[in-house]
Amino acid sequence: MSNPFETISERLSNIETLLLEIKHKPIEEEKTENLTVKETAELLKVSEQSIHNYIKRGYITAKKVGRILLIKRSDIDESLQEVKSLKYKRS
Asked: How far separated are the first and last CA of the chain, in Å rounded?
C-alpha cells in the first residue's frame, strides 16, 4: 500500500514511472484461449487426424461446440509438459 506521508509530487512521480514502464513494455502476442483442431495441428506441426487421435486416446481434452471441437491452449501446454516429463523419466 502507499505511504500516508507521501507527498502529491511523490505520488505523481510514482504514477509517471509506472505509466512509462507500461508504455515501454513489449506487447505480447495475444493467444486465443480456444483453438480448433486445424489450429492445434498447425501449432503442433502434426496432421489434423493426429489431433483427432490424441483426443480419442485422451492425450488432449476437447469440448464440442456444435460441430466444432475446441481445445484449450492451456490443456495443450499441460499435455506437452507431461510428455516432456515422461521422456526424461528413468524406468
From this structure: 51
Place of cell 509438459: 81
* CA distances in angstroms from 48 to 7, 12, 23, 43, 51, listed in the order given: 61, 54, 40, 11, 5
Q: How far apart are CA 14 and CA 67, in angstroms?
A: 51
Please check whether residue 74 is in contact with residue 63, taking contact to mean a CB–CB distance below 8 angstroms.
no
Averaged pLDDT score across all residues of the chain: 81
Q: Would the pLDDT of 83 be above 70?
A: no
- Under DSSP, the state recorded for 72 is E
